[in-house]
Every structure is written in C-alpha cells, then in structure tokens.
Amino acid sequence: RRPVVTDPRDILRTTFGFSGFRGVQQSVVERVLAGERTLAVMPTGAGKSLCYQLPAVAMEGTCVVISPLIALMHDQLRAAEAVGIRAATLTSVDDNRAETIARFRAGELDLLYVAPERASSGHFRDLLGSAKLALFAIDEAHCVSEWGHDFRPDYRLLRPLLDAFPDVPRLALTATADAHTRADILEQLGIPHEGLIVAGFDRPNICYAITPRNNTTKQLSDLIAENPGPGIVYAQTRAQTEKLAEALARTGRPTRAYHAGLDPAIRARNQAEFVASEDMVICATVAFGMGIDKPDVRFVAHAGIPKSIEGFYQETGRAGRDGDPAVAHLFWGADDFARARQRIGEVEPARQTGERARLTALGALVETAGCRRAILLRHFGEDPPEHCGNCDNCLNPPKAVDASVTAQKYLSA
Ligand code: ADP
Ligand code: MG
C-alpha cells in the first residue's frame, strides 16, 4: 500500500483548517487510506470532496477525479487551490493541457480532474500509466447507473480504465442514490458491498411544505414576504425564470434570473451578487446551485415539480446549510405530472420504467397527508419516526386530502 505520509488529522487542521471530521468523513477517509474500494453516499453539503482531497494530500501520487461537468470541475479546482492543494483540470476548454500533463508526470499534482469521456481513450490510459496514482475518485457516481436520475453513458467507460489499475483504490461518491441505484453503482464500478458507507440524510432544520398551485406569483410573493433572507426559486423553464424574477421584484426584494441561456458574464454576475446578498431571491433553472457554497440560503421554492425525489432533496438541500431554520416549499399542479408523463413517453424505452418509478415516488411525496420527511428519509433507506414536527403535515395535519385526486389520476392513467 502507498504510505500515508502524515496523520490525516494534521492534514485536516493544517491544510483544510477544520477542527474535526464531520459525520462519516472519518470512516470514508480511513477506508481510502487503507486502500479499500468504497462507495460513499452522503447528502449534499456533507463534505464529500474532503473524502478524496484529504487522501490526495496524504498519499503519494495523484488522485484522479472523474467529474461530469466542466463548470463543477473548475469550481472544485479553485477551492482546492485556495487551500494550497496542487490541482489541475484536464478538459477540452483548458489551454494549459501540456503543462498539466507535464506536472502530472512529474508527480507535482495531488488532484487531477477529468471528464468521463476521456476514460475510453487509450492515450489517456497510457498517460495514467506513466505517473504514480494515489486514488480514483468518481464524483456523482449515480451517473453510472441507468436507475440513477442522471444516467451518463460515458460513466460506463470507467470500469475498464479502473480495472487497468487494479491496485489503485477507488472511491465513488454520490448524494442521491436509492437502494436500487446503490447496488447498481457497486456492481458497475466493482466495489464490494462492505464498501458502502451511507451518511444520515435528515436535514432537521429544513421545514418542508408542499402546496397545490393556484396563483404562482402570489404564492411565491407570500413565501418571500415570510422569509426575509436569501432564497432560490426553481422554475421549470428559462423563460419562466425571467418572468418570475420580474414579477417577484414587485415584492421589493432584489431578484435575479439564472439559467444556462444567459450571457455567461451576466450569469456569473447574478450568481456572485446572490452569493454576496443577504436578501436576494434568485429565480433559476436546476442548473443553479451545483458547486455553489452559500450557507445562509433561507428558503428554496419550487414553482413546479422537480424531476424526482432525489432532485427535490438535492435542490432543497441548498437551504439552511448553516444549520439555522430554513424552508423548502414546493408548489405543484396536476399539469406538472401530465407533462412529466409525456416526457417519459419520449425517452428510450429502457429508461422508462425507472423514470416512471421515480415519478410515482414523487407523487407519493406530494400527495401524502402524513409526514413529508418520513417519506423522504425512507426513500433514502432510513427508518424515520412517523412524525418529524417540522413539515406542513406534521405542523398542520390536513383534515381532508382534496387535491390528491387530480395527481392520482395522472399517475395511474
Ligand atoms: P458535498 O460535495 O458533499 O456537497 P462539499 O465537499 O462541497 O460537500 O462540502 C460542503 C462544505 O462543507 C464546504 O464548504 C466544505 O468546506 C465544508 N466542510 C467539509 N468538511 C468539513 C469539516 N470536516 N468541517 C467543517 N467544514 C467542512
Ligand atoms: Mg461535491
């Protein structure tokens, strides 16, 4: 095994400036340092990056990180460099590739971020063979599973690459995997069952509420008025983010739109302004929030249904990372379910079963007269109490479930 050059706790303090590990981080890091193959399922914000960054610093050689999005890689790169970790990205948009390769070969990199499509190239395999490898970290590992909510065929190219270096430990990380997806990730990436480490998914400071939509602008304006801190409103389309940003400005709060179609300079500015603000409302597509570290988001609203329970959990998980009370409010319409069913009808047949199961699970969360948190946590394999005391149904038990009939109709048709 590659020697661990320093005590992990020293690195935690000196390099990262943290006084201790959080949750399962320590068990994950220990397994990795012992060279064991591991799948860490940890909610967003739980600190997955540290689980490979710390070993990358501790171990001899480079940790190769597979990451699905170039923007995400560049965020990670900046964060790693900020704490003095020697890191680089190797992507089509980097013009310093020759320099990165030279640094990698010379053993001057702790972390090398690459996209999954590189994995199939023989050239890349040779490159990896020409340097010392500490670890493979596979971020967003649910992308390898067709059961996952974000399957990326490129992730299937990873296995042969990993198997070409059987002695290099592998660490897969994901925030969002139900039991079926987890089993699939283990199988696809050649990780033994005892390598699965799951962190607690509960976010007790987030109050969940789910309401049928009748007047989106009015309902969102009321929510904004009740929550003076920064908030995110997730919209279904790019056009809707802009319309909502305009309409919600009438609440008197600063608002911005955020979506992938905006001019990159404007998008970056809106994001930076939001991160710095104490009262801004950003109306965004789901592209917003990945890699953004804003601990004081006080509410996350959905103007329509998310893609799945995983998506809901991930998006609402951006609220209240500082541990202070925060609100997650979903406004839904029967037409959301109708559209989702239509979209599922258009995807490849092999994926329809999984997509339908995800929509049904989401429907159950929307329709329940019981505890929202219980449904969420059970979805992630936890065994919660029947009542959390901090969701709409626990705080105000519904007398009759009126709107459910409509959703049921669309789910079972
Ligand atoms: P994830 O990828 O699981 O969503 P990140 O790796 O982005 O989470 O970490 C979320 C935040 O938690 C970051 O700001 C990170 O610096 C912080 N963090 C991670 N580990 C610790 C720790 N042991 N102590 C304090 N803060 C931590
Ligand atoms: Mg992460």
UniProtKB/TrEMBL annotation:
Family: Belongs to the helicase family. RecQ subfamily.
Segment of the intact protein contained: 15 to 427 of 606
GO molecular function, one term: 3'-5' DNA helicase activity
GO cellular component: bacterial nucleoid; cytoplasm; replisome
Domain Helicase C-terminal: 219-363
Keyword DNA repair among record annotations: yes
Protein name: DNA helicase RecQ
Organism for this UniProt entry: Stakelama marina
Superkingdom of source: Bacteria
Claim: Hydrolase is one of the keywords in the record: yes
Keywords from the named record: ATP-binding, DNA damage, DNA recombination, DNA repair, DNA-binding, Helicase, Hydrolase, Isomerase, Metal-binding, Nucleotide-binding, Zinc
Regions annotated as coiled coil: none
BP GO annotations: DNA recombination; DNA repair; DNA replication; SOS response
Domain Helicase ATP-binding: residue ranges: 29-195
Enzyme nomenclature, EC number: 5.6.2.4
Cofactor(s), by name: Zn(2+); Mg(2+)
Enzyme class: isomerase
Catalytic activity: Couples ATP hydrolysis with the unwinding of duplex DNA by translocating in the 3'-5' direction
